[in-house]
Amino acid sequence: MARLSGGGKKKRQKMRRDNRERLRERQEQLEQEGQTGKLEVTEFVSVSELASLMDVAVTDVITACLNLGVIVSINQRLDAEIIELIAEEFGHEVEFISVEEQDEEEEEIIDAPEDLEPRAPIVTVMGHVDHGKTSLLDYIREANVVSGEAGGITQHIGAYEVEKNGKKITFLDTPGHEAFTAMRARGAKITDIAIIVIAADDSIMPQTREAISHAQAANVPMIFAINKIDKAGAQPEKIKQELASMNLLVEEWGGKYQSQDISAKTGLNVDLLLEKILLEAEILELQANPHRMSMGTVLEASLDKGRGYVAKVLVQNGSLDIGDVVVAGEYSGKVKAMFNERGKRVLSVGRQRQYWCWV
Which CATH fold topology does 295-358 show? Predict the structure, then answer.
């Protein structure tokens, strides 16, 4: 026991020897990586994911972030600039790949033109906190979501289906809090049209610019909804001027982007906004084949005490029926029951031109 515990001198020697072995292992790893190539990461990876990719302790990554003046937690997502700096600190080179590049391996099924039918447009609502995104959806579907959210801020991505002039529109409500940057980016990539909500009594905030950049990166057509025009001090023309300074000219100013002055609280001009969405959808000529295997996106997944594993699924092509086998990444399962956003049980998603459900 005395020999194992050792004296102070022996302990220091052992620590030095362990440090030398650790450094040698890291050098060998770097040499192997130099032969294999760069670290391939997607933007907005978390601290723990980056640490596992570089094969270092999470505490080392957090310490490196603190040295750069950035306070992070283990599950916090990092932007591209911070990822590059941290990787360089540990002697790694980074190559950013998009989600689309990861999905390129999937075999694409080409549908025959006669099998295609018109489908409902998927509309994403984005913008700054408290500019009225959820209030707008609230008025459109005549339900009250805001009261159920913490502090009136949407904490999850959700989808809601509404009908206008006999045509359906699927709305995707994305969180407005800056902590959900990566979720909002994902929301923009599965949408057909993006609604950018801006408060007329405020200005274009950093989160609004972020939402616009996400929509532009995904090549999604945008419609600007200038909200709160009924409030004192509302200046919708000032908002249009700020958009013009960002090279985003609205149609009234001779540009290509549609915009609508609205009031989500009173419902003023919301019908005109819905008509503009349907007009944009007609231009896009959105079609899908309901008589094939379904393809879509899992917006969110959770474990429910009564129902078991529950996933919020947005079906983008084909039809999903009860009993179908679903595969998401490395996970698979069977559809036992499906519910729409109002909790009503549905038997099939896609054939009745309904594209949103809980599975």
Answer: Elongation Factor Tu (Ef-tu); domain 3 (2.40.30)
